Each structure stands twice: as C-alpha cells, then as structure tokens.
C-alpha cells in the first residue's frame, strides 16, 4: 500500500471513529474488504457486524475464534488468517496494541502470521476479536489496513462500553431517586431517608417542592441549570408521570443547609429566567414528611404560572381540609379506611393493605397516569381499584366517593395534633350527599363543622357569582365533554372557562393532581350550610 493511500485511510478511519463509532468503522471495513466484517466475543458471539451485500459470506465465527485463540496463545502471534474455500478469514485480537508502529506488510495467505510491530505474548483470551471475511486472493494492503484499524476500533469499543455503563449508572440513580420520591409521597419517611443515604445531596427538612415543566426533551439540560442555580442543594427527580416535568425537593429558607449567596434570586425564578420556555411552580415550606402535600401545591402553582409572563408562581396560602376536620373527622376517616387497613390478601401474590393504600393515593392524584407512577399495567390498576371499592363500599366512578376517600387518606397522613380541636355542632344530621355511598355518607356531619365551613368559604371566595361552570363541571364528574353539553357551549369553550377558573382559583383543574376533590367538598359544605326549605 502506498504511503499516500495509507495516510488517507488513517484519516478516514479516525474520522469515522469520531463521528460514527464502531458501526461506521465496520461498514467501511466490509466495503473495503468486499465482504463481511464483525467483532466477535471470546465465546463466538457476534457483538457487531456489517456486510457489503446481503449475500456476503458469514463464517463459522465461533469455530474461527476458538481456533485462533488457541493458536495465538500457543505461538505468541498477534493475528490469524485461514482460507475458507473461496474466501479468507482474517482475525485480529483487540486487546494488544502495536508498539513502534503498525506493520508495513500484509498477512501471508493461510496459517499463522506473526506481526513484528505487535508486542508478543500480550493477547487477552477474553478480548473480542476483529474478524473480516474477504474473497481470495486478499487485496493488497488489506491486512495492513486491518492492523491499522485495530487501535481506533478498540478505543471506540472502550468508549461505547463506558458510555453504556454510564447510562446504566445514570438510570440506576434516576430510578433510586424516583423510588425515594415515591416513598416520600406515600409517607414512608424513614425508609426514604435510608434509601437516600447513599445519594447526594442529603434530604432537607423542611422543604419546598418545585415542579419545572420543560419543553421538548431537554429535562437533562434543565436539571443541570437547576443544579447550578441552587448549588446542588436540591433533590432532583425526573417525574415518572409527566415526561416534561422535573421535581425538585428544595431546602426551605429556614432549613439548616448552607444558604445561597446573599441577594441571589430564588431557584424557581433563576430557572425560569435562564430557560426561556420552561414554567415553574413552587409550594409553601412543608415538613419533609408532607412532601405529597408540597407536590400538590407546586402542581397547582404550575397551573397558575402558565398564565403569567414571569412563568413562575408560588402556591398561595390555603389550609388543607385535613387540618380542619377535628377529632370527629379523624374518627370518620379511621372508620372508613379500616377495611382497607386491615385487609389480608388471600394469596401471597395479591396486593396487601399498604400496596392498596399506595394505589389509591396514586390514582386519586394522577388518575390513569397512576400506571406510570406505580409501574403497573392498566388492568392491574383497574383490578386493584375494584378491590378497594369493594372493601370500602365506595363507587370510585363517582366524584363524591373519590372526594371522601381522598380526604380520608389525607386525614390519615396528617399528624393528629395538627387537627383543629373539636367544636360541638348543633346542626341536625343531613342525608347522604347525592351519589355518595353510605360508607362515605358520614362525611356530611364533618362538613358541617364551623371550621370546615370557614375553609369552604375561603376556597370558593374567588369564584363568587361565577359558580355555574364549576358546579356543572363537578356534577359531570370532572369530564369536559358532558360539562360543555351541560353549559350549552363547545368543548374548547368549556376548556377556556376552566382554564380561567384555574387562574382565579390558583389551582389545577384540568390536569391531575386536580383541585376537584377540595372544590367538591367545599361546595358540599356550603350547600349543607344553606337554609333548607
């Protein structure tokens, strides 16, 4: 091979190594050899391969590799060639690299071929082998070309192997962070802290939860912006439900972490400013154990932020209904949930009470997206929901029963001392809410409490005089089509009205987690307090 041609080939192979990696190098080799080129593992498994034509001869690579490995080990050579009828197979181990340059001459036809430019006796029997099948006679310069390509091909393999390992590590870390977030969302704080102990940063307490909505597939880039914005103090998780969302569990302002530089903008404002097409919602400061509450708040703030020019918003102060139900509400929640809490599965593979509780919580928060959150099939989710409904005596297709179950679960997750003390109510008992099962009917007595009525008035104050759309939407079980029909308008028109209500209420309505449960409870409490005729 002339020196000019060899120089051109070297430039070509290094360019292919940089831009196309192993696959492009093998395609080029197959084209140059007018046959087949592949990388074969020590057990004969073809790891990568390319052929110039569909009918190119594919050798018995397992036999060739076994034969060459034995010969290389016994005779201390660095390459092997063998004639196979009308073709010649050339094999080069990818473990030993040349010292002092590559050989200038090709391989002799047939048998073993020592290469003076390769170090002797350094072959690794576990290393992959470059195998090339070419028509006889072997083209001039092909053996030299193959010797030259060993180094860039080996480096490509090493780089691609490292990249695969890095991706596996990144995936493992991402799944671990997702698991920690799931444990936090279901109230399993001690287990979450144990799992999080091997990762960084340490879980803060108290926290603000931040939800960042990205555009397209740039979550990784936005995550890097978030790390840079707060100095790596936040726990960042790729949302398992919404492909465009990042969830940040950030230290609250009074947390014991190292604070950002004085005068620095909050992380949510910084991220919104640096990433021109993202939207950010942030919760109030909450204890780490109340991460689920913080996430709901951040999601509601996100709905508000979409309509603001700044593209970020913090959750407006609003008490959780679980804080105002009092001891009577706690007793009601315990009684409602008792069949679920004491459930013992018939078979070992059936879901137990904790798994059913997690399913109910996830489904109420994410609706059909709970399959992504729980990593289960939709049929599995449907079967679990049927079992939950049977155990509790609830019709989970009804918004009234969904609201009762959601409140009961939130009451159970709220520390007892945080509940408003009991205040005797002189209100007479009310009949069960329309569409509410008997098991959840005792909720009416709870909704008559003065503290709950005050909470309801606060929730509904922003929509005074404009309740028709809200009531129709809730009466239609939160479904857009029936709501539009009930209002006598188009579906896009109904969506626009609900979007305006999101801005007024500062809550998410159209996408879960939705405020529809709280709004149903608030309207029911107001209706119970209204004068009866």
Explain how this protein is built.
The protein is an alpha+beta fold and 533 residues long. Helices cover 49% and strands 10% of the residues. The chain has helices at residues 3-19, 21-33, 61-75, 142-185, 189-196, 219-230, 267-274, 291-305, 326-341, 353-366, 370-374, 378-392, 399-413, 438-441, 443-447, 450-460, 468-475, 480-487, 491-505, 516-529, and strands at 36-40, 46-51, 80-84, 87-93, 129-135, 207-213, 235-238, 245-251, 279-282, 312-314. Helix 8 (291-305) links the parallel strand 9 (279-282) and strand 10 (312-314). The protein starts with a helix and ends with a helix. Mean pLDDT is 81; it is low at 96-123, 254-260 and 424-436.
Blueprint (SSEs and pairs):
Layout: H1 3-19, H2 21-33, E1 36-40, E2 46-51, H3 61-75, E3 80-84, E4 87-93, E5 129-135, H4 142-185, H5 189-196, E6 207-213, H6 219-230, E7 235-238, E8 245-251, H7 267-274, E9 279-282, H8 291-305, E10 312-314, H9 326-341, H10 353-366, H11 370-374, H12 378-392, H13 399-413, H14 438-441, H15 443-447, H16 450-460, H17 468-475, H18 480-487, H19 491-505, H20 516-529
Parallel strand pairs: 9-10
Antiparallel strand pairs: 1-2, 1-5, 3-4, 4-5, 6-8, 6-9, 7-8
Mean pLDDT: 81
How much strand content do the residues show? Answer: 5-15%
Series of H and E elements: HHEEHEEEHHEHEEHEHEHHHHHHHHHHHH
Cα-based radius of gyration, to the nearest Å: 33 Å
Give the overall form.
elongated
Major sheet: order of its strands? Answer: 2-1-5-4-3
Report how far the terminal alpha carbons are from each other.
105 Å
Biggest beta sheet summary: 5 strands, antiparallel
- Taking pLDDT < 50 over at least 5 consecutive residues as the criterion, the unreliable ranges are 96-123, 254-260, 424-436
The count of DSSP E runs of length 2 or more, i.e. the number of strands, is 10
Q: Approximately how much helix is present in the residues?
A: 40-55%
Note the total helix count. Answer: 20
Number of domains: 3
User: What structural class do helix, strand and pairing data support?
Assistant: alpha+beta
């Amino acid at each position: 091979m002339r020196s000019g041609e060899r120089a051109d080939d070297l430039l070509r192979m290094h360019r292919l190594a940089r831009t196309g990696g192993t696959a492009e190098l093998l395609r080029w080799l197959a084209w140059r050899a007018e046959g087949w080129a592949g990388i074969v593992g020590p057990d004969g498994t073809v790891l990568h391969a390319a052929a110039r034509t569909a009918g190119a001869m594919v050798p018995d690579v397992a036999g060739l590799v076994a034969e060459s490995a034995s010969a290389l080990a016994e005779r201390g050579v660095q390459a092997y060639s063998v004639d196979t009828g009308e073709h010649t197979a050339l094999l080069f181990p990818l473990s030993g690299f040349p010292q002092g340059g590559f050989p200038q001459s090709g391989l002799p036809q047939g048998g073993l071929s020592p290469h003076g430019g390769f170090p002797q006796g350094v072959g690794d029997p576990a290393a992959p082998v470059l195998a090339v099948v070419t028509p006889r006679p072997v083209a001039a310069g092909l053996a030299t070309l193959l010797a030259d390509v060993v180094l860039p091909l080996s480096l490509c393999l090493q780089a691609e192997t490292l990249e695969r390992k890095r991706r596996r590590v990144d995936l493992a870390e991402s799944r671990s962070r997702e698991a920690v977030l799931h444990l936090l969302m279901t109230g399993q704080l001690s287990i979450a802290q144990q799992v999080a102990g091997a990762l960084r940063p340490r879980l803060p307490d108290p926290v603000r939860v931040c939800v960042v909505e990205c555009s397209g597939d740039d979550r990784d880039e936005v995550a890097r912006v978030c790390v840079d914005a707060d100095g790596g103090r936040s726990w960042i998780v790729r949302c398992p439900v919404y492909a465009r969302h990042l969830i940040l569990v950030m230290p609250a302002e009074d947390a014991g972490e190292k604070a950002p530089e004085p005068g620095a903008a909050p992380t949510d404002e910084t991220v919104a400013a640096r990433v021109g097409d993202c939207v950010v919602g942030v919760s109030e400061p909450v204890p780490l154990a109340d991460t689920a509450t913080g996430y709901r708040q951040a999601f509601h703030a996100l709905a508000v932020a979409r309509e603001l020019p700044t593209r970020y918003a913090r959750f407006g102060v609003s008490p959780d209904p679980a804080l105002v139900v009092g001891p009577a509400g706690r007793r009601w929640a315990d009684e409602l949930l008792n069949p679920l809490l004491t459930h013992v599965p018939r078979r070992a593979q059936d879901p137990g009470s904790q798994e059913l509780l997690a399913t109910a919580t996830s489904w109420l928060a994410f609706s059909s997206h709970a399959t992504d959150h729980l990593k289960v099939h939709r049929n599995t989710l449907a079967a679990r929901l049927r079992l939950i409904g049977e155990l509790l005596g609830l019709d989970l297709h009804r918004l009234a029963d969904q609201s009762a179950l959601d409140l009961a679960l939130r009451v159970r997750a709220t520390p007892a001392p945080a509940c408003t003390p009991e205040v005797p109510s002189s209100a007479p008992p009310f009949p069960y809410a329309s569409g509410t099962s008997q098991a959840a009917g005792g909720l009416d007595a709870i909704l008559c409490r003065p503290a709950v009525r005050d909470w309801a008035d606060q929730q509904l104050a922003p929509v005074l005089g404009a309740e028709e759309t809200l009531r129709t939407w809730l009466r239609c079980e939160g479904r857009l089509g029936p709501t539009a029909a009930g209002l006598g308008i188009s579906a896009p028109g109904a969506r626009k009205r609900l979007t305006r209500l999101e801005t007024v209420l500062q809550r998410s309505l159209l996408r879960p987690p939705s405020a529809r449960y709280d709004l149903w409870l608030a309207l029911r409490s107001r209706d119970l307090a209204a004068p009866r005729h």
